[in-house]
């Protein structure tokens, strides 16, 4: 394997590892569930993307053609992580988990929680 590919793979792995470490630390350290959601959905997703990019480069070199599997995994993660975070936040909101006192716009939480489904237009 050429030296420049090894350097690119190592840099990508290091960047991914740093973001994964930051995401893991944030998950432990942040005080409430609403803040904790940012850590795994942003930093950890970026970290996994760095590791998968390194794997894609390595596998493409081994096979001699472009490796699509890692790209599909990355796209799947980038699509599902925000959806999962949204669902977790909605669950915490409906279970009335209290945010920190210094959180702004807390009055909007009651409005969002008590919101009704939009009415379907009546068929005539």
UniProtKB/TrEMBL annotation:
Family matches, as InterPro entries: PhaG_MnhG_YufB
Region (Disordered): 104-124
TM segment ranges: 6-28, 71-89
One protein family per Pfam: PhaG_MnhG_YufB
Biased composition range(s): Basic and acidic residues: 110-124
Keywords noted in UniProt: Membrane, Transmembrane, Transmembrane helix
GO molecular function per UniProt: sodium:proton antiporter activity
Name of the protein described by the UniProt record: Sodium:proton antiporter
Organism: Marinomonas ushuaiensis DSM 15871
């Amino acid at each position: 394997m050429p030296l420049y590919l090894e350097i690119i793979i190592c840099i990508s792995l290091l960047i991914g590892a740093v973001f994964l470490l930051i995401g893991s630390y944030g998950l432990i350290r942040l005080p409430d569930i609403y803040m904790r959601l940012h850590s795994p959905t942003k930093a950890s997703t970026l970290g996994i993307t760095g590791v998968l990019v390194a794997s894609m480069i390595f596998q493409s070199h081994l096979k001699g053609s472009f490796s699509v599997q890692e790209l599909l995994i990355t796209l799947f993660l980038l699509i599902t992580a925000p959806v999962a975070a949204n669902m977790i936040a909605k669950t915490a909101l409906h279970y009335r988990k209290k945010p920190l006192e210094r959180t702004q716009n807390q009055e909007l939480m009651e409005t969002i929680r008590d919101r009704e489904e939009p009415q379907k237009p009546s068929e005539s």
